[in-house]
Amino acid sequence: MKNGVAVLCSAKVSIYDINYEILSIIRKEYLRNPLLYAYVFYDIMYELDRTYIVFKIKDRKIIGFALLWKGMVPNGLHLYGDFEDLIGELDLDKETFIMVYSLEGLSRRSKEVFMRKGSLENSGTYLDMVVDSEHFRPYYPEKAVRLRREHAAEFMEVKKEQGREISVEEALKRLSKYRYYGVFFEGKLASIACAYLITPEVWIIGDVYTREKFRGRGFGKIVASAITRDAIRCSGKAMLHVREDSKPAIKVYTKLGYRAVSKRRWYYFKPKPMG
Length: 275
Known about the structure:
- This protein is α+β, with helices and mostly antiparallel strands and 275 residues long.
- The protein folds into 2 domains: 10-126 and 266-271, Aminopeptidase (3-Layer(aba) Sandwich); 136-256, Aminopeptidase, CATH 3.40.630.30.
- The chain contains 7 helices and 12 strands.
- The protein has helices spanning 20-32, 34-46, 108-117, 152-161, 168-177, 219-234, 247-255, and strands spanning 10-14, 51-58, 61-69, 75-81, 96-100, 118-132, 145-146, 179-185, 188-198, 203-210, 237-243, 259-271.
- The chain has a 12-stranded mixed β-sheet, sandwiched between helices.
- Helix 1 (20-32) packs antiparallel against helix 2 (34-46).
- The protein starts with 9 loop residues before the first strand and ends with a strand.
- Residues 1-8 have low confidence and may be disordered.
């Protein structure tokens, strides 16, 4: 007991066990390393009803976590540190992107846990790229348009070409929840990008996509520049994830001032059919 508060020496803590002491540990870790704990902090603060998380804590420090976000399909699973014995506690009933916060990826033992519940595919190695106000080099961000509800029809066309056909209701939901920019060319929405996670310390950029017939014109660079500009103004820092072998995209982000700071292994999980 220290100052009337029980001190955690070693414990496994689920989201149902979170109290003031645990929150203070999470907050401290997040402020120390916002890039590592951005998803944890955001999902606990803003997506609690769609989130399940298990921490491993030792000497008041987080040494591992498994964060499962179930806000849409595919779900998102984040695995960090000493997480192997946490996987079995997860309800993996939907297709799920798995992001392992290390270059080594999943161990053989961890893969076996997932494969008992379904199939597992290696999605490759992703770079975490970051830019701050000192290094950001904008590229005509004023040519991008903030996408809103009135752009739902055009937005749905782009998502369909991406292979992610969505309903009007879902399009309106995404345009309201996330901060999207787009570039229009000859009356068509040619390119999109968004910030899907926003905290005071960092924004995470994603869904950067240019329709095939409009590629090679710099539209992707413009929309990425527009949303990065907003991130820099509000938090001073932006982060995105890009496949290590996606050389054209990496070239674009590098020209905007992004630099690679870490690598993560991604996987795609499909549960066994019900019944």
